[in-house]
Queue: 4 jobs
Job 1
Amino acid sequence: MIEPDWVWGFVGGLMIGAAASLYLLVNGRIMGASGIVGDLVDGSGRATAPERLAFLVGLIAVPPLMVPLTHVVDTHITDKLWVIIAAGLLVGVGTRLANGCTSGHGVCGIARLSPRGIAATALYLLAGGLVMFLARHLGGMI
Amino acid sequence: MQRLIMAALAGGLFGAGLLVSNMVDTVKVQGWLDVFGDWDPTLAFVLGGAILPMALAWRLAERRKVAALGTPIPARHDPRLDPALVIGSLLFGAGWALAGFCPGPALASLTFGGWGGLVFVAAMLAGMIATPALRARFAPAHP
């Protein structure tokens, strides 16, 4: 059975792909969230800072305008402070070392059949599944 | 100016897509990674839906070589894997599982995600700022 969540997931996915296509075909940039924000905060993307900031303004300002139209108002993030901090640090360091995250390596990299994008995606899925198993089913932490 | 407006539009459409697909809900993302529990395949539909138009965009982009606003289409990376890519992806996957957030959804939900979302983004940015110093340990540096 097809569930409504999967259909909405696919529709939202098409929108994400359209956004990445727009950013590539018009601006000539790869839409990777970690790269756009990371090069900004570590100073390496100073030359293209206005474009990065404009992207981030759209990314941060548009979703709250849409919240009333959808059922989502809660991210359900854990209230365990140490988990949030550890996860944020791992995501920050990991995506910058790897030069990409779910959008850059996952969406843009796989769509280009980039070996690095495909390998990175396989590795973070593998680590994600493993840590989920260890932390939830063995450790009872999350 | 055109470039900034288009960047904001792309960012806005990305954020809207993350909301429509419900990828800002950490339970959905953790459900996708919870292969040995109550597995939720939604993320596969999101990724599939995003890759389809982007694959077409790449074909077009690589034929035209230059984007509409004059920027050259980014060249392909050296396809070889390096330790930084491997280690970084593994660390990222671990953090992704722990909180159910990756960078895009964490930023998209910043205004309505409560203190937990703010702390996550602050920690993520701190990790990003610290990385150039860490990266030297995993040299050779990759552009």
Job 2
Amino acid sequence: MPPRPDAPLHQLVSLRGITKAFGSVLANDQVDLDLYSSEIHALLGENGAGKSTLMKILYGFYRADSGQILCDGQPVAINSPHDARRIRIGMVFQDFSLIPALSVAENLALFLPQLPIVLNIKELDQRIREVSERYGLHVDPHAMVAQLSIGEQQKVEILKLLLANARLMILDEPTRVLAPHEVEALFKVLAGLRQDGYAIVLITHKMKEVQECADRITVLRAGRVAGTLLRAEASEASLVSLMFEKKLALLEARKEHGDAGKGIPLLELKGVSTKGEGLGISLKGINLQIFPGEIVGVAGVSGNGQKELGDAALGMIRIQEGSKYLSGDDFTRRSVQELRQSGVAYIPENPLTMSIAPFMTVLQNMALTRAGEYARLGGFRMDWQAVRADAEATSKSLGYSFPWYVPARSLSGGNLQRMVIVREMAGRPRLIIASYLTRGLDVQSTIAARQALLDARANGAGVLLISEDLEELFTLSDLLIVLYGGVIAGSFKPEDTTVFEVGRLMTGFEVPHGKNN
Amino acid sequence: MAKITEALTRFPLFHHKGWQTAVRYVLMILFASLMFGVILLIAGKDPLASYKDILSSTLGSASGFSEVIVSMIPMLITALAVALPFRVGLINIGGEGQLFIGAAFATFAALTFPNLPGWLLLPLMALLGMVGGALWAFIPGYLKSIGLVNETITSLLLNSVAPKIIGFLILGFWHSARDTVKTPSFVDAARLPTFFGTRIHLGLVLGLVLLVIFWYVMKYTRWGLEMRAIGSNPQAARRNGIPVSKYMVVVMCLGGAIAGLAGMVQVSGFYGMLFPNFSMNMGFMGFMICWLAGADPLGIILMAFVVSIIYSGGNLLQLTRGLPYSVINILLAFTLFIVLARPNFSKRKKS
Amino acid sequence: MTLLSILGVFSSAIFSGTSLLYTTLGEVIDERAGIVNLGLEGVLLVSAASGFAVTSLSSNPYLGILVSMLAGGLMNMVLGYLVITRKANQLASGLALMFFGFGLSSLIGKSFVGEKINSLTRFVFPGTAVLPLKYSSLFKFDLLIYLAIPAAILVWWLLYRTRWGLGVRAVGENADTAYASGRNPNLVRFQALFVGGMLAGLGAAHLAIAYATNWTEGMTAGRGFIAVALVIFSKWHPLRAIVGALVFSGAVAFQLLLQSSGVQVSPFLLDTIPYILTLVVLIAWGGNRRHAAPAMLGRVYQGSE
């Protein structure tokens, strides 16, 4: 990319000391940020680093607990997206806010600040064409949004901001669902916008893209600004070290391994591909084996196919290509019920929405995955004593305790997660799919949960551990794979690699020396 | 309303949740009666005298009371036909149509096998009634499961088609010698027996037994547990290995079967013949009652009772006050409006 | 089957279909905003009774029509209060409104059963007078009939060419997005309900004042439900509703035609044609165009509204 001519920069927006907590989680901690016109500013960081939260505060979606926002040097109060739009800030979210059944022009008209009472189709068309010609955002104004590709829909979202006169545009993970040629097209558009003086903020975790198109890069880590670099100063090494905790690189991988790699794999995925719905990720050509007594860890930034991998393994989503084997039997087309009955357990990332019946009691929830085992008289009665006995025994071994007779939804998030762990472990599963196992848990519970996995492994179970906690992955996994863009980007033993390498793969670099399996 | 309930919290008995609900319902019915009283005044009738008449004729005399029970019977069953699918998150608005088709199937048996003894013929009719209703519920369910049409729309359309099919069958094949718009009266063997010289027929026992079974299944059995899990969170239920699609189809057909049974009960127990439009919107009434009662068996019995009193009252008002029978629908509607305007009643029963 | 008899069917369909068309247009607007009105039957009855009563008392059919429209709008406001303000279930609220309509219309109409009124004058479309009398007499229509198709075009224009209509459609597709664009979804829904109710009232007015010219209990005979089916059949598009209304109303007249040509088809079965047709059409479209129904409406049918 040819270097930009040295135009005088105008400081559009400044954030000073922004702090925001959600309950006990500190999402943003005294963040300072300067955004300039004619500049593409990348906000880089892992999930949970605070990038989205920060920009949502700027867009008026959230209110900061403390701190200030300055616009053109003057402090402003942004209490809602309407306020943000009034000072010409616009945001394109990860899930687009377009109406599929309406046309492109209608979607754009909906958000036009001054729309006449009687719509003037010709004038609208002309305005759209002018702007789209100028920046290469070619779409047919009369096409229905439902018929557009994701890339085209994104163009409409950008057009929406342009027609509403935004001068600062925030794009949240814009390339997550784009094909490579669509990514190129997007960068061209952004370059054109920058030329015309627009300020653009790119929220992303993808290093390569950042290096290709950003002028300035701010790295966030755990809610704080880890550093701000100009493009010239930003090398792979510097960015990765800012994104990930340095000390982890010194973490020693455990010495003990189970007897992995022997016999028939408990779970085998051969060339598995799935089709993502709408804005979801598609898995492509996944090859994976989990042997008895083995923990396979899956690293990666959330949104790169983790949920899809867990769901495909469980049978919740359809495998389009490839096959899935459970202890050698073909389970590609089998239902979730059959998988569960074959001893597969699933601990999802969001228990409340994904695996709990909120209005039923804790004890009743305990019976849901293996109701058949506790049914008596052919199903006419349930043996609640047995349910309780099993659940209590497992809870005790984990050091957890619950009130059994309250509605599940009255439990805290951490308690819900513990509850699901107890339920899934009580069935002595052969294969455990654990997705963000220890998210939201305190130290004690985390230790207990991890120990439970190790115990299960010692008993010959296999575990698919999906996590964004690199410490957890390095400590527990026998084999570590990295998921990026729905593809396995790398696969190694933890002791053969470093956090640095894993970090690079997580952010989109290909390992030059071909360590992929 | 909130202030009244607040004041009542001073009484210790009031802290029991069941009492709270009961009191709330009584207050709502009183309020609705007040509003209807205003309408009566505007229409130039004496509201107090009217209410006195209604209550004395329904609750004051044995025959009046028995009539209230008689009209309750189909409501119990049609409400159950909605309540069961509701527990797995399905909305069965097709009860009206399922009722008709069930009645048609049962009528076929009654007219084709008049020589069978009652203990054989009645169960046959009941069975056929359930088959008919289940079939009518299966069509929307099937179309939905192959991803073609929304089941609520299909059910509504089929509701309108069913009575016309009945009309066609009666006119074409089943009509009595003298009258082209109804079938001949059923033989005694095809009639559900009545009790103690009243018009209360065996359908009452059927309805109550079914409600008890429903209560037991939902509370104690494995299937009830899994169904409540589906109703509570279908995605989670699927992930936990519960065969959600299977349950949904089966339960929808069961709901249809129950509604079909209600149809059989009405033509066999109450009318003793089949004629077009015999349902008197009973299917929709069941939907409303199930809704008001939050799909709870005891609530269904209570609400059916209240609605029956209102309808019986309408008969009386027509005779003594010169108002068209249909006017009683206003009181009914007011009750419905007031209960609907309090959303906390509906959210309670999403499990 | 002569030309005369075919034209007769056509004419009869136009007569009875006009009220259906107006009602359907009203329901199209409501459903486009995401609200389905199962109580339409009750709305029609109350509008018809009020309009008829006022016409009888004032001897002025135009006044009656206005009152009908107002009554329809107000009845829909009751639905709006329940469904929008109190967030009650739409299906249950609609049915409650239906029962209310049964009762209220009986009360209003009881003194007017059997009354005669001044109806709307019927006149032939200028230009058809040159045709032989037996043809042109078939096409002596009243004002509301002539205005029916223009009304459909007006509704189309309202929904697709005005800012308000865009807002209505946006609210019916995705209330959150509509809100993000600065609109108040609840207010828009109330507005849509009122306009829709007025159109339904217009349909009821035509039925009672111009077509049947009398009042009997339950005279709408299921037209409310037919209109709900017709909205689906027309894929929520006002111009397609014109064809639909003709087809649906033509079924009955068509049956008479068949009978006169010696073909015996049960009137009951013919009456099922509108519904079966709607189902067939839905199945045929079902595969490709999932986006036909306004998205928020889908949630009503799913039970989450």
Job 3
Amino acid sequence: MRVARWILGVAVLGVLFYLNFFVFQGPLLVKMVNVSLFSSLFVLFRVVVGPSPADRVVAVDILGVLTIGMLALFGLFYDQGFFLDIALIWALLSFVASLAFAKILEGRRLDD
Amino acid sequence: MIRQTIGLVFVGVGIAFDFLGVLGLVRLPDVYSRLQAATKCVTFGTAGLLFGVFILKGFSSFGFKALLGIAFIFLTSPVAAQAISRAAHRSGIPLAEESVIDLYKTDGKSKGE
């Protein structure tokens, strides 16, 4: 069972990377954005399946960090600077949201 | 030309570290070890990517925004990770079956909590 899961996971990752880097024709930055989107897909898997609430909080926190990287890549691809402004604001809001989720998870009220 | 190559190498290494951290987030057995793997996403992944953007764009407003993003992420992300792990331990989420020792719990008891 364990070996079957390993082989299934390695096969899925291999197919995704083969399709991304050898079949898909496009600029290098678009391929990097595709890898980041695969990572977001796995994070969403952890958000949906995660057995405890803390798993979901960790996954949402990491999703914010991945989004910052993706916005930086968009800024490189379109050669526009305002994407990094959006990335900074996203970092600030993600930090505040993580602290609020942690406080709720601990069982305290928000105005404590 | 050399600057382009170095910047793209930094961006590629950052993307690779992001992917490996997310793989750890999916595969590891426990909240705390998942958090430990996912924080690697921040320190080498996204920070390396933003540093690559700084190298590619040079001393313009674009590059300085990237440096500001690195500073902000390094300040805020460990605080959030610490708060999440503390809240998870206090709300009673158990460790994995393979783990050996829980020093946070025993230290709290020895102070007569």
Job 4
Amino acid sequence: MKIKVTSLYVDDQDKALRFYTEVLGFAKKSDFSNGPFRWLTVASPEEPDGTELQLALNNNPAAKAYQQAIFQQSQPAAMFFTDDVKGDYERIKARGAEFTMPPTDVTASTIAMLNDTCGNLIQLTQLAHY
Amino acid sequence: MSDREQYTPGPASGAEVRKDGEKWTLILIRELRHSPEKVWQALIDPAQLREWAPFVVDGSLGTVGTTVNLTWVGTPTPLETRVTRADAPKLLEYADIRWELEASGKGTRLTLSTKLDRRFISMGAAGWHISFDVLDRLLGGTPITRDEAMEAGWQRLNVEYAQQFGIKAPNWQLKNK
């Protein structure tokens, strides 16, 4: 078994695609529609055949309640790893994205948190030994 | 619709990078089939910028010293941006962006210089390449939307520019329909 894809709920798939590609720097990997359902994933250019992130439309009331609750608790809905969290922070912030936490040293890593504009907080993590 | 379906960006070309530390300067040159005066309007007018540029502004960029709110595609927060040069129809500067326009035959040679993080220089080149295609069609009266144009070839151009700039190219295995 392999972990090939992980899912993230978003409130608008077109808006999410723009944010995850043009702001964060990922690229679209899959985009298939079947009626109202749209399977949309992105991947990292550093690992194009790595784990894909599905941007799933959140039209499920239970999922919406969960998403809003963890957002309000400042819990990240997803975590990405980088080898330069400061550089990513400067670049993404310079574009006008909103960080809820600037790069901050914690045990064995430096982390930052940003708002993806689609209902989620995203944590960027740089491990100290990277 | 048929124009949209037929649009495919041309090969990566007309770009140069000056490598200096973490921030590199991207220089992109494009020959447009429109007069400098017409191109100038497209560079300063919020309504036209909204159609082709990777950002929107809430006021004209045409007057030196004015400050506008500039919002990059996909981001929530406008950035206060001051126009530092505006010599119509030749030279325009704001933030990290500098435009030069030169009459070239019946058209315009447009030169963009902008600073970018070195890791994102090929992405930026691909994005601006597509924006220039959208601009050319907007001015020519056969518009396509920037979102659709991005779909049609941004990832391929990103790889081509990375190769031209001698940086690691993303090895996309595209599965898009």
